[in-house]
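Quick illustration for those who missed Monday's session on complexes.
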Amino acid sequence: MCGIFGYIGHQHALPILVEGLRRLEYRGYDSTGVAIDDGSHVQTHKTVGKVADLKAILPETVSGTRGIAHTRWATHGGVTQGNTHPHASTDGAIHLVHNGIIENYQHLRRGLSARGVDCVSETDSEVLVQMMALELQGGATPLESVQNTLQHLRGTWGLCILFRDHDLLICARNGSPLIIGQGQNETFVSSDPHPLTAHTQRVVYLDDGDVVVINRESFQIKTTKGLPVEPSITVLEDAWGEAELGDAPHYMYKEIYEQPDALRQCIGGRVDREMGTGRLGGMGLDHQTLVQAAHIHLLGCGTAAFAAEIGQMLIEKMGRIPATTHISSEFRNNDPVINPKSLYLAVSQSGETADTISALKEIKLKGGQVFGVVNVVGSTVARLCGRGVYIHSGPEQSVASTKAFTNMVAALTVFATQLGRTRHLSKADGRNLIRHLQQAPHLMETYFEDIGPIHEAVDLLCEADSVLFLGRGLSAPVAKEGALKLMELAYIPCLAYPAGEMKHGPIALLEEGSPVVVVAPNDHLKEKTMSALHECKARGAKIILIHEKGDPIGAEGDVSIAVPAIHPWLTPLLTVLPLQLMAYETALKLGRDVDRPRNLAKSVTVE
Ligand code: G6P
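Prediction with 6-O-phosphono-alpha-D-glucopyranose bound:
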């Protein structure tokens, strides 16, 4: 989603800003722009399209050591150059980039009109810069102009503001992430840590309500009301994994094939093979809390919600404790009943998904205990929860999530084992599960050595008007994840159903040649899944069957793809791999932008 990058220091700002934008590209955006103080005036360059398109229209060199930049994912107003950030006040004194949504912008816009200021864009963001300019004209300092304006706003914002006549930048955060990176006599501002790591390891994650004045040598944080805030410096650790593409054709390809190593990073040091249990130190859970937990609730959106559904089933299987998965956006708006004896897990790759953040704030407000299951270290979910488990997938840049999914499943498996061992799970069963979990990375590698007839499946999928995905038990969420991947990458309508529900509706769609993807690992539900497969076949469907190697059911698919056999509770870690590859290859064959599918964003920081 929208990305902010800002710079003030002693180097040429333009290349730093453009490189910052490039590193924010993965979040998803549709237009981009920069504003730089070149010493005599503020130059603005904007374009609809990619950062590469912006680069193409930039002058060869622009002197100037202070500037702001933005990638915009349209919310208010179409994808046009006029709506692209940075936005400037009519008098040109202020330039601003904004992430988030100003809910009362129409009211504010009418107020500006009444004072003779007409906005030239359709955005909610422009009202901010015009309001600040009026403050400045009325004698306010830059900081006062920001503070006074913020008091009138309802909504969310991450702001970076450049004042033509004052050698500083001002930032503010409320609900939209913003990080300050501190270098030697230079300061960087970014929406996420990726672009900062090229410049500095010393960062400050802003909190809601923070307003920051950044001068050339230092910065001061204040509350909206002007009270000083002591900055809390975080030193970014060298994260596992490369954020750059390297030799891979796409980020998604790279991330699919990184899954074995990512999984090793996730479970390393977190399992006790001898005792057959998990050891998630960051959860800070004592024995008593685990034993007394009344219910486990898991929250997430998109892929994270499907990983949560698998976690839910494993928690119930191993812990024999009720567990429920909630879509964050539904949970937060349905006036949820919070039980302080329950444990709540907020599952999120980015840790910045607005709906999940709102849900966890609601839980905390009502006295619930929330734990993060998060990839991005220091992200808002991680900091709000304070406790939890980092899934250690390394940077995930492709919009479609892959290695975060398998690591969320693995982290939740370790949690379920830990919970189970305090209750009903025997030592022998725990040890058996942990042994298989430790083998899973190797089994993923074994699968990647022979991925099976993915291309035959792709030939069927490319032609399809719609695709049905079926699975039961742990494979039902895997089917949902496979359908999501194919739909978001290839733009083919996909339905996912628990196999038993197929005959209660989706069967009506089947006709000669309709592709149906059936996920049928060798678990206790396989025979029932096969009944659904036969019912589809009888209506002329073409079956793409995901099964375990050596299982005779392989003969039942029109295209059969085998994955290595594993413990029945761990099958999602393997059965999802061919689904990811099928989505990737189908999208490629249809000429789609695999890493940046249309309209989607990696990090959905607005409602
Ligand atoms: C967006 C992304 C999905 C992701 C979902 C949740 O929709 O496109 O890939 O699964 O957000 O994101 P999170 O960062 O909370 O896991």
